[in-house]
């Protein structure tokens, strides 16, 4: 599918390193990804960051970057709904309004994830047929050039079986049209491969996925299967998914640090690192969560990327790339069409009158 120029709103004040890291990643994306960037937040602080980059030869045309004023920020310690109602000019709310009014096609935030999700539900609403949205995160696998989509990784700590079934449908569509997997293999995260394993939620969900013709279900996936490459999509509740996400990120950082420490020991080590530098760079790209840019909030009527609070410029750049992929592949309309089809397939036919 051919790409077109996208307009992406970014909460420039969200995250530990805002607005500096946000602006850095946004500028790189504006110059390389054929996107127009709307930086939402304190105009003086954003402009100051922009001026720091003006000497850079890669600085994009200013027509590709626009500042949208917003003088309030939802802080990490605040309760999302009350903060959004009280701070009507907060950067996350103003950015979400741009998407609602079709002035932007996607929103990205490294700020309060609860506020981002609440704002998306309040201003964009859910897709028809979706009870709960889910955050999808892309993980690397042991198979080169193959990833796995895990959802939910934090939006819903408690899930009913029908929520997990909906996650599976959304994950299938995203895997097909954005990740390019022609025939995705969907798994249900569980404590065993057998259909009889797991709690009541897992047992009921398993049967629903077996019965759903829109889900290419390949059975239960154990924890060791997550990075094996045997599945393209794995569904779980947000409590388990968030634990898996944080564990994987921590493990990746530990492995990178251990390699760095061990391979630089002594003269031979330093020479070895020089020789292995290209391979180590590829390794880092495969395991570093920064390369994946965050998670897509699937199930809301708009493209919303929620990324790490500690995001650096590279994370923001990759989040914009992720958003543009979703835009180019028309993922929202595809999901809506699929849920309309599921509604038709599961509709109970009306009894015909007796002649």
From TrEMBL:
Q: What EC designation does it have? A: 2.3.1.274
Q: Reaction catalysed by this chain?
A: a fatty acyl-[ACP] + phosphate = an acyl phosphate + holo-[ACP]
Task: Name the predominant localization.
Answer: cytoplasm
The UniProt keywords, alphabetically, are:
Acyltransferase, Cytoplasm, Lipid biosynthesis, Lipid metabolism, Phospholipid biosynthesis, Phospholipid metabolism, Transferase
Matches recorded under Gene3D superfamilies: Isopropylmalate Dehydrogenase (3.40.718.10)
Q: Give the GO molecular function terms.
A: acyltransferase activity
Instruction: Report whether Chloroplast shows up as a keyword of the record.
Output: no
Specify the enzyme's EC class, one word. transferase
Q: In which pathway does it act?
A: Lipid metabolism; phospholipid metabolism
Q: Where in the cell is it found?
A: Cytoplasm
Q: Which residue windows are transmembrane per the record?
A: none
PANTHER family hit by this protein: FATTY ACID/PHOSPHOLIPID SYNTHESIS PROTEIN PLSX, PHOSPHATE ACYLTRANSFERASE
What role does this protein play? Answer: Catalyzes the reversible formation of acyl-phosphate (acyl-PO(4)) from acyl-[acyl-carrier-protein] (acyl-ACP). This enzyme utilizes acyl-ACP as fatty acyl donor, but not acyl-CoA.
User: What quaternary structure, including any partners, is listed in this protein's UniProt entry?
Assistant: Homodimer. Probably interacts with PlsY.
The entry's family comment says: Belongs to the PlsX family.
Designated name of the protein:
Phosphate acyltransferase
Q: Which organism is it from?
A: Phormidium pseudopriestleyi FRX01
Quote the gene name from the UniProt entry.
plsX
């Amino acid at each position: 599918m051919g790409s077109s120029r996208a307009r992406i709103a970014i909460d420039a004040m969200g995250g530990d390193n805002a607005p500096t890291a946000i602006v850095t990643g946004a500028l790189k994306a504006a110059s390389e990804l054929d996107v127009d960037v709307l930086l939402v937040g304190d105009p003086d602080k954003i402009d100051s960051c922009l001026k720091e980059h003006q000497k850079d030869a890669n600085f994009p045309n200013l027509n590709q970057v626009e500042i949208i004023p917003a003088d309030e920020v939802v802080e990490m310690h605040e309760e999302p709904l009350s903060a959004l109602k009280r701070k009507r000019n907060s950067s996350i709310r103003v950015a979400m309004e741009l998407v609602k009014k079709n002035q932007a096609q996607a929103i990205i935030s490294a700020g309060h994830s609860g506020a981002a999700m609440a704002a998306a539900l309040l201003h964009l609403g859910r897709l028809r047929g979706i009870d709960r949205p889910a955050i999808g995160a892309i993980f690397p696998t042991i198979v080169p050039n193959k990833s796995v989509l895990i959802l939910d990784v934090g939006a819903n700590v408690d899930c009913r079986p029908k929520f997990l079934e909906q996650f599976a449908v959304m994950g299938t569509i995203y895997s097909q049209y954005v990740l390019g997997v022609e025939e995705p293999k969907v798994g249900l995260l569980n404590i065993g491969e057998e259909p009889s394993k797991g709690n009541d939620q897992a047992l009921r969900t398993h049967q629903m996925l077996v019965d759903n013709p829109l889900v290419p279900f390949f059975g239960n996936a154990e924890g060791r299967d997550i990075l094996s490459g045997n599945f393209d999509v794995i569904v779980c509740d947000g409590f388990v998914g968030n634990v898996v996400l944080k564990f994987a990120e921590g493990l990746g950082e530990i492995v990178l640090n251990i390699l760095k420490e061990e391979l630089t020991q002594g003269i031979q080590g330093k020479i070895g690192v020089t020789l292995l530098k290209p391979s180590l760079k590829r390794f880092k790209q495969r395991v570093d969560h920064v390369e994946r840019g965050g998670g897509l909030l699937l199930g809301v009527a708009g493209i919303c990327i929620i990324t790490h609070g500690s995001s650096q410029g590279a994370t923001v750049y990759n989040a914009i790339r992720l958003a543009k992929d979703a835009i180019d592949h028309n993922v929202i309309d595809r999901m809506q069409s699929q849920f309309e089809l599921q509604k038709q397939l599961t509709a109970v036919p009306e009894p015909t009158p007796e002649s």
